[in-house]
Amino acid sequence: MTFDHSVLTNCSPVSDSTYIYTANGSPLVVTHSGNITPTYSPLLDKLTLPSVFCIPKLTMKLLSVGKLTDYDSNVLFTLTSSIVQDHTGRTIGTGRKVNGLYQLESLHLSSSPHLAASFSVTFDIWHRQLGHLSTSRLKTLSDSCWKNFSLLAQIIVKVVVLQNKLMYLLVLAITWLQKYLI
After folding, report:
1. pLDDT by residue (tens digit) across 129-148?
2. Mean pLDDT value of segment 80-102
3. 90 and 142 co-located in one domain
4. Which domain holds residue 97?
5. Are residue 80 and residue 163 in the same domain, yes or no?
6. Does the predicted model carry a pTM greater than 0.85?
7. Domains: count for the chain
8. Between 114 and 2, where is the model more confident?
9. Which one, of 3, 89, 19, lies nearest residue 52 by Cα?
């Protein structure tokens, strides 16, 4: 995401009311969408990033971890730094943590035909570009949690039934003791 639409190629205005939401829930309007091919940057080697969004109220350019992982890269975070690795585990980028944000200091990616593919803007893409889980993953998580909750409820019912049986046996034992020993 960028605040400057002049850096975008194949730039077009976003016709529908599309927003991204900041960490505090504030909506920011997306005005344009396009590609970025940073020819001027030593950090990015002939890489075209498709479907980059222009949000004029942003104060810095943002690169989605989801975008990097879509291109078969791994991103690792430590307390003070970040590392981008290709699919073989070779380090292709580094960054450092500054005021709570990880700033990319270097990134070397080779061009690949699948990198320049464009795709339509959907809720899932927005969600992924913000680093969030896709709706299918959220549903899987939700289903899994519901199954675990269901299993927990069954266990609780069995424990309560067992407690009732134990209480019944305890009452029988006390009754027997009272009748035959007292």
Report:
1. 566 666 666 677 777 766 77
2. 85
3. no
4. 72-104
5. no
6. no
7. 3
8. 2
9. 3
